[in-house]
Amino acid sequence: MRSQVVIIGGGPSGMLLGQLLHRKGIEAVVLERKTRDYVLGRIRAGILESGMVDLMREAGVADRLDRECFTHDGTLIAVDRDMFHVDFKALIGQSVTLYGQTEVTRDLYEAREATGAQTIFNVEDVTIHDADTDAPHVTFSVDGQARRIDCDYIAGCDGFHGVSRQTIPDSVRREYEKVYPFGWLGILSETPPVNEELIYASSERGFALCSMRNAALSRYYIQCSLSDSVEDWSDDAFWDELRRRIPEEAADSLVTGPSIEKSIAPLRSFVTEPMRWGRLFLCGDAAHIVPPTGAKGLNTAASDIHYLYEGLVQLYEAGDPEGIDRYSERALARVWKAERFSWWMTTLLHRFPDMSEFDLRMQRADIDFLRENRDAQKVMATNYVGLPY
Ligand code: RFL
Ligand code: PHB
Fold first, then answer.
1. Identical fold, 2-70+95-178+268-347 and 179-266+352-385
2. Global pTM?
3. DSSP string for residues in 150-169
4. pLDDT at 81
5. What are phi and psi of 4, to 5 degrees?
6. Rounded to an integer, what distance in angstroms lies between the CA atom of residue 94 and that of residue 301?
7. Does domain 179-266+352-385 have CATH number 3.30.710.10?
């Protein structure tokens, strides 16, 4: 079998790229290790930058998003019992969009299915061959049968644990990593959100985030220990702990209920360089990870897809390789700024186990400066709504 592009990974990066390329008449097969239901069952991101929303529109998959999304003009930052507002709209005239990654992925799957483009699920042993030559191919097995696809280009959209990144030889690949000494325990519950906008809360018991999916579905997170498991946290224990970490007015109005999903995610900052090797391009979590504090993971995946898509269109339509040749450089320039912002927001708001009294005072001074200084708030707002592509 032959395809112009093989996309490894049917998460949001791979499906968005597939849909954009399809609209330009560029053929791409998607290989996904899991089942469709498994992929659509993942609960992850909630906040979309305008760049991501524009890409969804360009891919022709934004009808439901435009109908059902919520616009957030700012966010709340809480410190112990105090709370202040960072008003993105008033500060820089921009907003963010609340629309779950689960919905983004569903819209992309439905649109792809309507086009008849090929997605192969349950693939095993995906292996990339000859990516540093002009004739790469991908082998895999499905239902016990060995398969091969010859192609022009390979997009490695297979997340942090995928095979694409590992295909780049050690002598070429550099990795930069910071592992944080805590995780996030998240729950989804069919309860009205505690507040219209998100509340990012720093407390002496650790970080908490109040988010949502819609008027009847809330998403909450608390910083937890890396040794915790989901079974250690009953719903009641979760709600009690959340109440202790958010301002009293929010705690008093919090509506609780049974969780319908509960999971723990470790926090990590990670970047691979370069993001291209020969005819293989890494996109999204396959190339970089951010801690979720700045809501940048999916959004940074989207900017990668933008650069790669533009590059491939420039190549296939005009025969000009400039865009794909500069893909890694362009993507990384934006990735590192998202990494910095996510690291900063994580450091600002979490309790690290080894913090000294001095470290705590530094953290407090940083938060106070943000509360009092409009320029500092503008810097935060500019990064949070998303840097230009
Ligand atoms: P994904 O979503 O991991 O998808 C990769 C896909 O590749 C498949 N795969 C393979 N397929 C074939 N062969 C192989 N060998 C394969 N290995 C893996 C996998 O099954 C999977 O389907 O990566 P992608 O597409 O790059 O998307 C990245 C985003 O999912 C991620 O960055 C965000 O979810 C991060 N994130 C957030 N990002 C935001 O922009 N805003 C947020 O508010 C936000 N909140 C979050 C988050 C991530 C979280 N967790 C759980 C890590 C909140 C949380 C709790
Ligand atoms: C979410 O709603 O899941 C969410 C929102 C903001 C973040 C992280 C996660 O920073």
1. no
2. 0.97
3. EEEEEEE---TTSSHHHHS-
4. 78
5. -60, -45
6. 21
7. no
**pLDDT tens sequence across 128-182:** 999 999 999 999 999 999 999 999 999 999 999 999 999 999 999 999 999 999 9
User: How far apart (Å, rounded) are the C-alpha atoms in residues 49 and 57?
Assistant: 13
Strands 174-189 vs 280-282: parallel, antiparallel or unpaired: unpaired
How is domain 2-70+95-178+268-347 classified at the architecture level of CATH? 3-Layer(bba) Sandwich (3.50)
162 lines ligand 1 (CB under 6 A): yes
How many A from CA of 325 to the centre of ligand 2? 33
Ligand 1 center to 301 CA (angstroms): 9
What does the alpha-carbon distance between residue 299 and residue 108 come to, in Å, rounded to a whole number?
15
**Residue 13 tokens, joined:** 């990066």
Scan for tokens 């007015």, then name that residue.
249
**What are 183's two structure tokens?**
């995780």
CA distance 160 to 25: 29
The token duo for 30 is 């998607």
Residues 6+ apart with CB under 8 A from 213: 46, 98, 100, 188, 219
Whole-number Å distance between alpha carbons of 291 and 371: 23
Q: What is the pLDDT of residues 4-61, one digit of tens each?
A: 999 999 999 999 999 999 999 999 999 999 999 999 988 888 999 999 999 999 999 9
Helical ranges in the chain per DSSP H: 12-23, 36-41, 50-58, 63-68, 88-92, 101-115, 164-167, 235-245, 248-253, 297-318, 322-325, 327-349, 357-372, 374-385
User: What SS3 state is found at 319?
Assistant: coil
* Ligand closest in space to the Cα of 207: 2
304 lines ligand 1 (CB under 6 A): no
Residues near ligand 2 (Cβ within 6 A): 45-47, 198, 209, 211, 219, 292-293, 295
Domain ranges of the chain: 2-70+95-178+268-347, 179-266+352-385
